[in-house]
Amino acid sequence: MNLPTINKKRITELLKQDKRLDGRTPFQYRDIKIETNVSNKAEGSARVTIGKTEVIAGVKMATQTPYTDHDDEGTMTTSMELSPICGERYELGPPKINAIEIARVVDRGLRESGFIDWKKLCITPKEKVWSINIDIYCINDDGSALDASALAALVALKTARFPEYDKETDTINYGEFTDTPLPLTKNQALSMTFYKIGDSLILDPNREEEDASEARLTLAIAKPEKDRIISAMQKGGQTPMTADELIKIIEQSEKNYDEKFPEIEKKIKDLMK
Amino acid sequence: MTEEKQEEANELDQEKTENSIEENSKETQSNEITEDKSDNSNAEPQENKETESLSEPTNNESTHSESSIPKERKLVIPGEIIVSAEDNLPGDFTRNQDGNIVATRYGLAETYNRVVRVIPISGVFEPRRGNTIVGRVEDINFSGWSINIGGPYNAFLPLVECPRFINRNNIEDFATVGDVLAMKILGVKRGSVDLTLKSRGLGKLEGGRLIKINPHKVPRVIGKEGSMINLIKENTGTEIMVGQNGFIWLTGELAGEIKAEAAIDLISQESTSSGLTEKVEEFLKNYKDGEK
Lengths: 273, 292
Fold this sequence. Notes:
The structure holds 2 protein chains of 2 kinds.
Chain A: H1 5-16, E1 32-36, E2 44-50, E3 53-64, E4 75-81, H2 97-112, E5 122-124, E6 128-140, H3 145-159, E7 161-166, E8 171-181, E9 190-197, E10 200-203, H4 207-212, E11 215-222, E12 229-237, H5 243-272
Parallel strand pairs in A: 4-6
Antiparallel strand pairs in A: 1-2, 2-3, 3-6, 5-6, 7-8, 9-10, 9-11, 11-12
Chain B: H1 2-17, H2 21-39, H3 43-55, H4 61-66, E1 74-76, E2 81-84, E3 89-90, E4 94-97, E5 100-103, E6 107-112, E7 115-120, E8 132-141, E9 144-148, E10 154-158, E11 180-189, E12 192-196, E13 203-205, E14 209-212, H5 218-222, H6 227-236, E15 239-242, E16 247-251, H7 254-269, H8 276-286
Parallel strand pairs in B: 3-7, 10-12
Antiparallel strand pairs in B: 1-6, 2-5, 4-5, 6-7, 8-9, 8-11, 9-10, 11-12, 11-13, 14-16, 15-16
């Protein structure tokens, strides 16, 4: 069922006083839990829960011939599915526009930040390269599936190990893992999505807040050295955003990165041990 | 025009003072039984009994033993053998299979006068005549409103079932898409539900917000003769309207609203446990702001 008008009105009015229906402040996250190696078949996998939202991401490796314009670089594809298991609003079938968008935004965040060293994924130039397939499944959708997906994909990539590969016969021995991790760089891009409800901005909306929002902006922020770098951006929703709002979002994202992301990175680090 | 507005305001005031719908629904339900017997002899009294019996164990323990309420209820899943069919008869949501009474729904099994029945605790809303429900307007056409009542059926509220005059050309002035209304089910035909606004305490709900629970847990949220809902209302200072379809409208101060929602959550989670009133009482007493 779509959101009743009274619920939207209530959410908007409360946000004017910087209040939310679950007692959080506008830029406060729900509890984030990260779990790794949830699948024993995938080369890397992770489960991320933000409040009641739950997302599983898996990384699968394969080989392919490289694209002619990048003949010594590996490839990556990201796919996302929102099936009826995660909410009554979703239907079975090929991924629809919102699932495709999430996959593309996650893909862009990882790609444009330079998180993966593509050249090192090359087996034989112009002939054979590794391809990374990231599959994201939403188990429960209570808002912020986008941020959860981006985080799950990132953690899954970090835990991934190459499968055994026979160069002569060009066969992958799935199920047998080597100890070699993927060639990743320091540019870990973590996504955060700002939602605009009325004239207010919030982070990590729940289902109702996400339904009430008119526009959103996703930022993928990496911090390889001292400086924070915005490596990807995506605007969604019908309503435009003003220049002032954009400045406010960027300022808040910096603040938020410093507050929240050391915590997430520590969690990831602890899991990697 | 101004007169009309005044009228509307009065109506709304009345609504607030009338201390909400669920007591109403109790009243109207019991009135309706006699009427119902004529054409739909099984459905309505059973529904009523279900509501009563479900809420009864939360009440006084002493009434328990002497009343006709069965001593134990067993949680069963579809296909589970409840009891042998030799001494018992299959009732609601059960069937006789190879000499055994087998549940066809997930719920609580009980025996009453040798009749075994299952009170379902999950599943969709099954509309019955006389139910007071809360719904959201999904669509408008020339003769009325199409309403989402949270079930597999479409519900329709015709223009003529509105108690005051509405200009046929401007139906959306009274209620438009996204608005929430409290209504009563006038009748259930195959695949369609007819609604009415012509009863006490019904109408458009302004302010507050709508939350959803499983419709089978509504009797526990209301409690016997509204005891549970009144407890929540008194302790949180909120106004609550519970529809039989599991849509709950609540309004009040933010803190009270969060508290009331948490209490309703607790009830729907622990709907199968006994002594629920005490649990909720304790929960409301120990509840601290900001706690989820």
